[in-house]
Amino acid sequence: MFKIIKKSKIDRTRLGEIQTNHGTVKTPIFMPPGTQATVKAIGPDDLNKIGIEILLVNTLHLHLQPGENLINDLRGIHQFMGWSGPILSDSGGFQVWSFSKNRAKNGQNLAKISENGVEFFSPLDGSKHLITPEKSIEIQHKLGSDIIMAFDECSPNSNNKEYAKESMERTHRWAERSLKKHQELSKHYINNGKKPPLIFGIIQGGIFEDLRKESAKFITNLDFNGIALGGETIGYNMPKTLEILDYLQDLLPENKPRYTMGLGSSPYDIIEVVKRGVDMFDCVGPTRTARHGSLYNFESEFEKGCLRISNSRFKKDNGPIDENCDCYTCQNFSRAYLHHLYSVKESLYLRLATIHNLRFMMKLIKVLRNNI
User: Fold this and answer.
1) Which residues contact 101 (CB under 8 A, 6 or more apart)?
2) What's CA 297's distance to the chain center, in Å?
3) Annotated catalytic, 282?
4) What is the 3-state secondary structure (H, E, C) of 294-324?
5) pLDDT, tens digit, for every residue of 147-194?
């Protein structure tokens, strides 16, 4: 299911292909999150024109609303959201971690983690739910995802090594249970002459080198189709992310795709991890920053590769966001117009800005591929 086409002679960058039930994904690849079965502010036709190859959806959110059974009855997530390309579903581990840090309005913890799974109260209506590794895999199968993720506990970016170890070991046990449930459900596909979805395992261990290495050895010894790096550290703490990737290099199998979860807030981050042999990454950053007025442009005058469209200097600027960009927005609209839309809070701004930032990411991916 994964084939390496070419490797760089300069660094660890590699060009590959992942075969899924809904088409081939070329790597390295950026996956925009369509958390609740939509990429905010744009539709599938926009995504196709931008050149997006694969989307990410979230198991926990779709379980809460509208529910995996409804989606399954409506012929699966692809038909439901009008997207014909590959889809990866996050298992919900990150959302569980997020819930566990927060409290409901009545002061009650939103989530409680135990060996069995996670018990939590829905932020939508306060209803009580239990997600186990088996339940997470079952939901993802019902959604009809092409790539599913093992259920894990997202390790925090903290100095509490005792908890990081406890969390990692629980993730390992949940990985085994996730894989077992996936193999059980896959029999139905095989018996009907179909291919089951691919499943990826997740390395945890927080900021600790010995734990990350222990987790890498454990997860890579299981029969997963791909290997992911998870936890709050990955993507949120780029110096530590790069350090982890550097010391795990020799422990990650060459013949499986590598996925850094939640990484890609800045285009510069993607360049760094691709050089270290990462094949897949996702982040809400490009779409979120677009909605909040930060538009990607690598010109040296813009800090961190972002143009702040709210700046009054763009009020009369008739040029595009980026003169080198071929996206619909840059080809048809000026900085002055986008400044106006943002200033008056027009919804069209959200679509045009999102189109640009995602196209910028895909053009960057194309450059990285070609450079190999």
Assistant:
1) none
2) 22
3) yes
4) EEECCCCCCHHHEEECCCHHHCCCCCCCCCC
5) 999 999 988 889 999 999 999 999 999 999 999 999 999 999 999 999
Q: What length is written for the chain? A: 372
Letter for the amino acid at 334? Answer: S
Distance from C-alpha of 15 to C-alpha of 303, rounded to nearest angstrom: 30
Active-site option among 46, 152, 282, 322: 282
- The whole-angstrom distance between residue 255's C-alpha and the CA centroid of its chain comes to 21
* Tokens representing residue 121 in the block: 């109260």
pLDDT single digits (tens) 56-103 = 999 999 999 999 999 999 999 999 999 999 999 999 877 766 666 665
Neighbours of 246 (CB within 10 A): 10
- Determine the Cα–Cα distance for residues 271 and 264; give it in Å rounded to an integer: 9
Give me the half-sphere count of Cα atoms (radius 13 Å) on the Cβ side of residue 22.
19
- Following DSSP, what letter does each residue of 83-109 receive, concatenated? --S-EEEE-SHHHHHHHHH-B-TTS-B
| Tokens 């990692």 -> residue | 168
Instruction: Tell me the C-alpha distance between 152 and 232, whole Å.
Output: 12
- Residue among 295, 306, 288, 284 at smallest CA distance from 337: 295
Q: Is 152 a catalytic residue?
A: no
Angle in degrees, 0-180, between the axes of helices 133-143 and 161-191, rounded to the nearest 10:
40
Instruction: Sheet with 280-282: list strands edge to edge.
Output: 29-31, 280-282, 258-260, 226-229, 198-203, 147-149, 87-90, 55-58
CA distance 171 to 370: 37
Q: Which residue has the tokens 């990826």?
A: 200
From first CA to last CA, the distance across the chain in angstroms is 21
The structure's pTM equals: 0.95
For residues 184 and 171, what is the distance between their CA atoms, to the nearest angstrom?
A: 20
Per annotation, catalytic residue among 46, 90, 146, 152: 90
Tokens in use for 233?
Answer: 């550290």
Q: All domains of the chain, ordered by start, with CATH?
A: 30-283 (3.20.20.105), 291-359 (no CATH)
- Show Cβ contacts of residue 356 under 8 Å, excluding neighbours closer than 6 positions: 290, 295, 296, 321, 322, 325, 327, 329, 330
Query: Which tokens sit at 111?
Result: 């989530």
Is 61:69 a contact under the CB 8 Å cutoff? no
